[in-house]
């Protein structure tokens, strides 16, 4: 299986995002990246967008659903969001979507910060195996992995995809 | 007329500077000779003691028998049996029972129960003051006539120097020996372990060494003034030893003992809040322990058990809340002999401290001599002693070697020629 | 016989499963506690201060010694982790009727508690409970006798880190009744592990333990010498009982010699910070001008207290839930 060219995928995704923002009329959208890979992707996208808002970061360690099974992640870094996300359109960005649980946790956390006007989901890679009814609005590339295969994004520069 | 023949034992008796492999025969409870019995005598019991040591039996200068009054901690039967298994032929029972041993009735009760149990012989210590309250003199003469071998204050405070002086004068009048603890309550108050770096780190209240040395100074001066026959029980400090040495140099006749635990452990044992090591007197520093060992080596210090059995609940509490005391009778002689590995002490010196010296203090001959009552312990240094909770004799499982094994084992203990273990 | 005071607190792979004392914990672990606490500080600054991390878990506050402040912060910390919390005022219940500590706890465990926060007058009580009574319930030590108050020490470390950048290389002075202070002992261990250049303890001879040097703290009897070049000054609370037990003549004399005034503070570095575990006795340990002045970070300490307690509760619960697995 050939892995997609990440740089190429990012460029295409950026273009799709600009079109989405215009099509939906999103005013002053907040880009929120999920740690850690999602933040890198968000920063890449943000660089190409007009306006100069910083990317917000979300650490979902406190919102995961597997505490009883796996405990607390040792490298909690915390989330950094602007003072208010009330009525702001949010672009939620992650590098890889699989079961959908990470996105569920991220949305729960976002709502503890405030009430966004809307949330659009952007993922660099969709590797299927969904366990929840959550789908990205924009997706860079789809990938089907064999049993036991995992994919890993390294970064921030250069962004590279590896199979594990 | 029962005859006992012990073959090829290594007989170690420091009172005669004896250390030799020989046969021993005993008849009617008395040692007859260091040889096989004569040809016309058939021994009723023959013991092959090859590779084993035969020593004069251990004598304990202070152990707590929880009867009468503390049945949840044990009985005279269980504890004297543990003592016999530990190598003792005789033990002095402390008077802090319930009721206190300040009446002839209690003294007689203890003796009767011990006799019926048939294990280690008990030499009761009577109370020095009524109820051990430290205020009024107890009827010491009556207690002595009932069988008390000496009077003790069982580590309970005496009200003040005045009472202490009168106590001593009274005892001196009738040649009654006093077993005295050196403990100044005002300095020791609230403390549960030795005052030092370990106590500081653990936030536990410490008992400074001055709690012992100041009280000892008081005792020594009053002993000198009154001329009473005195023995200092359970000392723990290096400084106390030099004070005793100085007093002796000045001509004072005074003896002392230290608990075995103070020779084996230091305050470091308390790290981790193990309430097993909550004992009185407290376990002190390494220097104190080394000095106590040296004094034993010089023949100046006896070793006592300070045996104090407790039920589980009494020890299952945060350190300062737990009752003080360690169970020591089971495996006592093997624990003593562990000092051969851990220190420079010799078997002779240890036997002197645990048998000969204490025996003489309580009117026993001390040693193994033809013609004398045969109180002896047979010890196999090659065997092991398993101290499992199921098989321990003492009901106090607050023992540092619980469910562990010790090198060496008592194979028999004899009192008056009879096997009591 | 070597005993490792930290070992009983850790899982086989070195994660926290009880938090009993700062003694013996590695620099990495203490730093992880501070980092995790930092993340919780940010959650405390937003509108919804709760995270769902400990939802479904039961935390029991077992305070055998009275303390409204500390108990309230633990209660708040548990609630902000979405745990269910039960407050037991033991001073007035079972144990005063003679039930042993052991039995009280076994009865509680039977109610399916996941965590006990324990404050007790006996040094070693938290260890006793963790080792002998309920090893599968996470125990957080909220203060045991004179031995340890690790969460207070960690919030003090967090305060120093947030206001001074790091603890590494700093000169820290702790002033007051060290002898009776569990806070001071926990602070000394943490400061040394986290690389403080020097830890000093200042007070009269009656209130400094003779062997305090064995813990790595340098004793001083004089404020001028003791505070020279200090980066951090921590004042401890003086309790009234000390006057009754022949330890001090009067509050007045103590304040004269050791009370932190602007004049004495001038001996420390110009940017030194002043801390106090609270509650403060104005005019005894510290004068109002200093307590309310620009060097004081006392109020911040209080707010960090919730975040630190959330961090250790989350970490200890994590270690109990997953004693052998690597975390996600």
SSE topology:
The complex is a heterotrimer of chains A (164), B (421) and C (328).
Chain A: H1 6-24, E1 30-34, H2 37-47, E2 56-58, H3 67-70, E3 89-97, H4 101-113, E4 118-126, E5 138-142, E6 151-154, E7 160-163
Parallel strand pairs in A: 1-2, 1-3, 3-4, 4-5
Antiparallel strand pairs in A: 6-7
Helix pairs in contact in A: 1-2
Chain B: E1 3-13, E2 18-27, E3 30-33, E4 45-48, E5 53-56, E6 58-63, H1 76-85, E7 88-93, H2 104-117, E8 121-127, H3 140-146, E9 150-152, H4 161-173, E10 178-181, H5 185-188, E11 193-194, H6 197-202, E12 206-207, H7 210-226, E13 230-233, H8 238-249, E14 254-259, H9 261-264, H10 286-297, E15 302-304, H11 312-315, H12 332-337, H13 339-342, H14 347-361, E16 376-386, E17 405-415, E18 418-419
Parallel strand pairs in B: 1-4, 1-5, 6-7, 7-8, 8-9, 9-10, 10-13, 11-12, 13-14, 14-15
Antiparallel strand pairs in B: 1-2, 2-3, 5-16, 16-17, 17-18
Chain C: H1 27-44, E1 58-63, H2 68-80, E2 84-88, H3 101-109, E3 115-120, H4 125-133, E4 138-144, H5 150-164, E5 171-175, H6 182-193, E6 198-202, E7 218-220, H7 223-227, E8 232-235, H8 241-244, H9 251-258, H10 262-265, E9 273-275, H11 288-291, H12 298-321
Parallel strand pairs in C: 1-2, 1-3, 3-4, 5-6, 5-8, 6-7, 8-9
Helix pairs in contact in C: 1-5, 1-12, 2-12, 5-6, 5-12
Task: Calculate the terminal CA-CA distance of chain A, rounded to whole Å.
Answer: 13 Å
Question: How does CATH name the architecture of chain A?
Answer: 3-Layer(aba) Sandwich
The shape of chain A, in one word, is globular
Oligomeric form: heterotrimer
Q: SSE string of chain A, helix = H, strand = E?
A: HEHEHEHEEEE
DSSP helix count of chain B? Answer: 14
The chain pair with the largest interface is: A-C, 27 and 29 residues
Chain-averaged pLDDT of chain A: 89
Helix content of chain B: 25-40%
Strand content of chain A: 15-25%
How large is the radius of gyration of chain B?
21 Å
CATH superfamily of the largest domain in chain B: Metal-dependent hydrolases
Q: Average pLDDT of chain B, to the nearest integer?
A: 96
Percentage of β-strand residues of chain B? 15-25%
Spatial gap, N to C terminus of chain B: 20 Å
Task: Quote the CATH topology of chain A.
Answer: Rossmann fold
């Amino acid at each position: 299986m050939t892995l997609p060219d990440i740089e190429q995928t990012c460029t295409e995704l950026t273009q799709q995002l600009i079109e989405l923002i215009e099509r939906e009329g999103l005013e002053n959208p907040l880009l929120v990246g999920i740690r850690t890979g999602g933040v890198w992707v968000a920063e890449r996208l943000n660089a190409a967008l007009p306006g100069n808002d910083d990317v917000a970061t979300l650490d979902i360690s406190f919102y995961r659903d597997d505490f009883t099974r796996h405990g607390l992640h040792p490298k909690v870094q915390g989330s950094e969001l602007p003072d208010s996300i009330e009525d702001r359109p949010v672009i939620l960005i992650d590098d890889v979507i699989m079961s959908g649980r990470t996105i569920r946790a991220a949305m729960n956390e976002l709502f503890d910060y405030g009430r966004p006007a809307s949330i659009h989901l952007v993922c660099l890679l969709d590797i299927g195996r969904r366990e929840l009814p959550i789908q990205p609005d924009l997706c860079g590339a789809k990938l089907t992995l064999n049993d036991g295969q995992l994919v890993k994004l390294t970064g921030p520069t250069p962004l590279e995809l590896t199979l594990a | 007329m029962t005859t006992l023949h012990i073959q090829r034992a290594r007989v170690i008796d420091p009172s005669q500077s004896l250390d030799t492999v020989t046969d021993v025969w005993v008849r009617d409870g008395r040692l007859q000779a260091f040889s096989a019995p004569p040809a016309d005598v058939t021994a009723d019991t023959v013991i092959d003691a090859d590779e084993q040591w035969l020593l004069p039996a251990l004598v304990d200068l202070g152990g707590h028998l929880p009867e009468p009054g503390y049945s949840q901690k044990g009985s005279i039967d269980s504890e004297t049996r543990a003592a016999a298994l530990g190598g003792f032929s005789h033990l002095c029972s402390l008077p802090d029972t319930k009721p206190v041993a300040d009446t002839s009735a209690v003294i007689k009760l203890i003796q009767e129960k011990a006799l019926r149990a048939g294990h280690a012989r008990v030499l009761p210590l009577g109370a020095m003051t009524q109820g051990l309250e430290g205020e009024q003199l107890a009827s010491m003469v009556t207690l002595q006539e009932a069988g008390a071998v000496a009077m003790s204050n069982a580590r309970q405070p005496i009200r003040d120097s005045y009472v202490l002086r009168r106590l001593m004068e009274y005892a001196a009048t009738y040649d009654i020996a006093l077993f005295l603890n050196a403990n100044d309550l005002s300095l020791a108050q609230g403390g549960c372990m030795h005052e030092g770096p370990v106590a500081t780190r653990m936030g536990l209240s410490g008992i400074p060494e001055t709690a012992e040395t100041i009280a000892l100074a008081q005792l020594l001066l009053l002993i000198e003034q009154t001329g009473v026959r005195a023995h200092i029980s359970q000392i723990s400090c290096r400084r106390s030893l030099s004070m005793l040495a100085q007093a002796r140099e000045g001509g004072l006749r005074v003896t002392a003992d230290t608990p075995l635990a103070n020779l084996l452990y230091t305050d470091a044992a308390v790290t981790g809040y193990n309430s097993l090591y909550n004992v009185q007197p407290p376990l002190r520093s390494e220097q104190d322990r080394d000095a106590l060992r040296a004094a034993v080596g010089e023949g100046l210090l006896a070793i006592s058990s300070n045996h104090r059995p407790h039920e589980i609940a009494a020890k299952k509490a945060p350190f300062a809340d737990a009752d003080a005391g360690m169970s020591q009778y089971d495996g006592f002689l093997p624990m003593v002999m562990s000092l051969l590995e851990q220190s420079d002490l010799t078997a002779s010196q240890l036997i002197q401290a645990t048998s000969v010296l204490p025996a003489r203090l309580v009117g026993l001959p001390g040693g193994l001599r033809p013609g004398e009552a045969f109180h002896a312990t047979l010890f196999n240094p090659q065997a092991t002693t398993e101290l499992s909770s199921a098989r321990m004799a003492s009901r106090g499982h607050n023992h540092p070697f619980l469910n562990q094994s010790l090198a060496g084992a008592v194979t028999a203990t004899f009192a008056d020629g009879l096997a009591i273990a | 016989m070597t005993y490792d005071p930290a070992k009983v607190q850790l899982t086989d792979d070195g994660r926290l499963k009880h938090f009993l004392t700062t003694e013996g914990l590695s620099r990495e672990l203490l730093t992880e506690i501070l980092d995790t606490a930092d993340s919780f500080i940010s959650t405390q600054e937003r509108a919804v201060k709760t995270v769902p991390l400990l939802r479904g878990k039961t935390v029991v506050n077992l305070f055998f010694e009275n303390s409204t402040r500390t108990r309230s912060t633990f209660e708040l910390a548990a609630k902000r982790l979405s745990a269910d919390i039960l407050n037991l005022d033991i001073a007035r219940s079972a144990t005063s009727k003679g039930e042993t500590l052991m039995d009280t706890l076994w009865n509680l465990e039977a109610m399916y508690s996941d965590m006990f926060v324990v404050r007790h007058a006996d040094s070693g009580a938290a260890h006793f409970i963790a080792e002998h009574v309920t090893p599968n319930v996470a125990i957080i030590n909220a203060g045991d006798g004179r031995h340890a108050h690790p969460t207070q020490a960690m919030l003090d470390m967090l305060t120093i880190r947030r206001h001074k950048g790091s603890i590494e290389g700093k000169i820290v002075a702790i002033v007051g009744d060290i002898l009776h202070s569990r806070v001071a002992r926990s602070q000394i261990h943490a400061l040394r592990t986290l690389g403080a250049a020097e830890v000093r303890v200042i007070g009269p001879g009656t209130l400094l333990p003779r062997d305090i040097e064995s813990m790595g703290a340098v004793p001083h009897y004089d404020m001028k010498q003791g505070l020279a070049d200090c980066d951090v000054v921590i004042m401890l609370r003086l309790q009234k009982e000390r006057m009754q037990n022949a330890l001090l003549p009067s509050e007045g004399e103590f304040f004269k010699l050791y009370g932190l005034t602007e004049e004495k503070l001038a001996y420390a570095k110009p940017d030194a910070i002043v801390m106090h575990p609270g509650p403060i006795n104005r005019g005894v340990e510290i004068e109002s001008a200093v307590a309310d002045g620009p060097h004081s970070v006392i109020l911040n300490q209080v707010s960090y207290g919730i975040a630190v307690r959330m961090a250790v509760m989350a970490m200890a619960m994590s270690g109990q839930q997953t004693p052998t697995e690597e975390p996600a």
